[in-house]
Amino acid sequence: MNAQIAAAPARERDAPAPLTQLEIDQRVFDLYDEYCHGEIDRREFLLRAAAVTVGGLAMAQALLPRYAQAQTISFTDPRIKARYVSHPSPGGTSGTMRGYLVQPTTPPPYSAVLVIHENRGLNPYIEDVARRLATEGFLALAPDGLSPVGGYPGNDDDGRSLQASLDPEKLRTDMVNSARYLKSHELSAGKLGVTGFCWGGSTTNFLAATLGPEMKAGVPFYGAAAETASVPAIKAALLVQYAENDERINAMWPAYEAALKANNVAHEMHIYPGTQHGFHNNSTPRYQEASAKLAWERTIAFFKKHLA
After folding, report:
1. E strand or H helix at 140
2. Domain count within the chain
3. 171 in any annotated domain
4. 120 and 234: one domain?
5. Which strands, in side-by-side order, build the sheet including 110-116?
6. Backbone angles phi, psi at 272, to 5 degrees
7. Cα(19)–Cα(22) distance, rounded to whole angstroms?
8. Where does residue 106 rank: exposed (0-12), middle (13-18), buried (19+ CB within 10 A)?
9. What is the pTM of this model?
10. 27, 145: one domain
11. Does residue 151 sit in the same domain as residue 297?
12. What domain range is 40 assigned to?
């Protein structure tokens, strides 16, 4: 027993350190982006990463999410109270939606923020983002677009496949209904903000155009721009957050910016140097701590300004 105890620290010292962002080849990041967006499956991602560079397989495996690392706010944090809720969703995937609702333990009402997941359902990282918002005084709801088909399945591969199988228009309707449910919630002060990541960032832009004056502020992280024809309907102030190394998404900005300016939509945009798509997600090496922290500080300040 004593020998085993003594050996444990040695094994920990000998274990290889996890790869950092700077140690991963950009070509592997690009393949991961294809994988995340459903253009290639997990097997193809690993095979192509192994072929593109020496050590590519290890780089690819390092990019797969480790959600235990993503928890920054405990489920039992005394500053918050969290629970799962269900609400009607007419015109959506099944007519009902489920979400993760987190409130501060200070007295209500609260400004409300909808948190929209990536293209794989309500995973632990997005739930943690909702808890982070609650610690800042907001009522946060993170809807699970996969709830009509059983909810987030516990891993991103199956979650991505499930989300890809859904009718995209009905899924967006589910997000619209979740936003309106949150805005009118008994704990809500009636002022609605929306943030989201990747697919959720795109949906944040979509909701800004769809909800019009019902939405006061939006913070899309590396999300596709709203359709130009829909921009005149946007009444929310927007804080647009981009990664530097995200050519597909960033290429949409010039036209989006022109449309926002032409329609007098209050907005600001930040590109974070040296970052990858997904840099805010602290469960993989795409995470860039300094930029993620700055982007989050800007997000909180923006919501406090526009939802006060």
Report:
1. strand 139-143
2. 2
3. yes
4. yes
5. 80-88, 96-104, 139-143, 110-116, 188-197, 217-221, 237-245, 267-276
6. -100, 115
7. 8
8. exposed
9. 0.85
10. no
11. yes
12. 20-64
